[in-house]
Here is the input.
Amino acid sequence: MSGLILIQSFDIAMEDIVQFDELLEHAEFHAEEYGDNIFVFISKHYGELKEQHNKDHQEEKKDHEKLPFQNHCSCSSTVAIVSDKYVVSLTSFPNLDGETNFYYPALISSLHAIGRFQPPRSA
Here is the structure.
């Protein structure tokens, strides 16, 4: 279960997995054309060099749009179910008349009873 939550926290969609071959092809293109290693390639397309690379190489814009992990979607959904068909009365719940069915034993040990651990007294 924790592995599933971890994978979902990376926000990897099926669309990104399908486009992964485009990433490999474009990385090979960068290695041949510019001599970039994988770290420089990732920096140019996902990191701090992205803006400069997009500005300098407008001819690669179509290829850049096909790369995975380009979706900047932040989705939030809220579900609210409102029904006036069933009305619950608080008087129908048991034990709301002040009667309790809790039992807590006294937290006093025998050492407290004989006076060993008592707060200091003024003389």
Summary: Residues 2-65 form one domain. The CA atoms of residues 102 and 117 lie 29 Å apart. The mean pLDDT is 76.
